[in-house]
C-alpha cells in the first residue's frame, strides 16, 4: 500500500510542467496543480479544504449582503445564523493554500532532481 502521494518513479513532471503546477496551486486553485502533477491524495485533500473554505466564505458573504439589504430597507437586523462561517472558511482556505505551497515545493524539488528523458538512438546510425 502506497503511503504517500508522490508520483511513481519515471512519472515526475518536467521542470516546465512543475512550474505550471506550482503557479496553478498558488495563484489559481490550491490542489489543482497537485493533481496535475499526479499527487492525487494531497491534491484532492487540498481541493476539498479549499472548496469547503470557499463555500463557508460565500455563506458569510451572503449573510453580510442580507444584513446590508435589511439595513437599506430600514428593517431590524436579522439574527446571525452562522457568525463563525467567515473566519472558519478563511482558515480552511488558508490551510489548503499552505498545504499546496508545501506540495509545490516538493514538486519543484522532484522536477529539479529528475533525470532528463533518454531519447532513443537511431539504430541505422546518422547519415
Structural account:
With 127 residues, the chain is mainly alpha-helical. It has one domain. Helix content is 63%, strand content 0%. It starts with 14 loop residues before the first helix and ends in a 14-residue tail after the last helix.
The span between the termini is 50 Å
Question: Quaternary state, please?
Answer: single chain
The whole-number mean of residue pLDDT values reads 86
Total domain units: 1
Radius of gyration: 22 Å
Question: Share of helix among residues?
Answer: 55-70%
Largest sheet descriptor: none
In terms of DSSP E residues, the strand content is under 5%
Count of helical regions: 4
Helix- and strand-based class? mainly alpha
Instruction: Give the total of beta strands.
Output: 0
User: Topology as H/E string?
Assistant: HHHH
In short:
By secondary structure, the chain is an all-alpha fold.
Highlighted features:
127 residues; mainly alpha; rod-shaped
Please write out the topology.
Layout: H1 15-27, H2 32-36, H3 40-72, H4 85-113
